[in-house]
Amino acid sequence: MTATLDILPLADLKAHARIDTSEEDPDLAQLIEAARGFVEGWCGPLDDFASPVPPALVHAMKLYAAHLYENREATSAGGVAEVPLGFFDLIDPHRLRVF
User: Fold this and answer.
1) Lowest CB count within 10 Å: 10, 15, 53, 67, which one?
2) DSSP letter string over the chain?
3) CA-closest candidate to residue 81, choices 56, 59, 64
4) Which among 34, 80, 39, 37 has a CA at the least distance from the CA of 60?
5) Which residues have CB under 8 Å from 10's CB, separation 6+?
6) Does 99 map to a domain?
């Protein structure tokens, strides 16, 4: 199995989310793992794709991990926060279909 941080390096997520410190690196690594699991739930194992993993799926992982980082609680005072816009557009061509 390809290591998740080889698919989406921690530095790439931090640059995407504009995070400059290393204090939360262990938590961010867990969010990347969670994002991989979420994407794989829709698209199947990322190891099933030709190497490298399609860039759209890697970007979807970034969007989802950053979303989880910014929305750490199940509820918020400011309103409901859904999956980031574009996430499903990125994964749709790779989704498993059930007919």
Assistant:
1) 15
2) ---HHHHS-HHHHHHHHT---STTHHHHHHHHHHHHHHHHHHH--GGGSPSSPPHHHHHHHHHHHHHHHH--SS--TT----SPTTHHHHHGGG-----
3) 64
4) 39
5) 25, 28, 29, 32
6) no
Q: Which domain holds residue 68?
A: 4-73+80-94
> CB neighbours of 31 closer than 8 A, spacing ≥ 6?
13, 65, 68, 69
Q: How far is CA 53 from CA 7, 9, 45, 50, in A?
A: 7, 13, 10, 6
What residue type is 65 in one-letter code? A
Tell me whether residue 37 is in a domain: yes
Cα 46 to Cα 9: distance, rounded to the nearest angstrom: 15
Total number of domains constituting the chain: 1
Q: Specify the higher pLDDT residue, 75 or 52.
A: 52
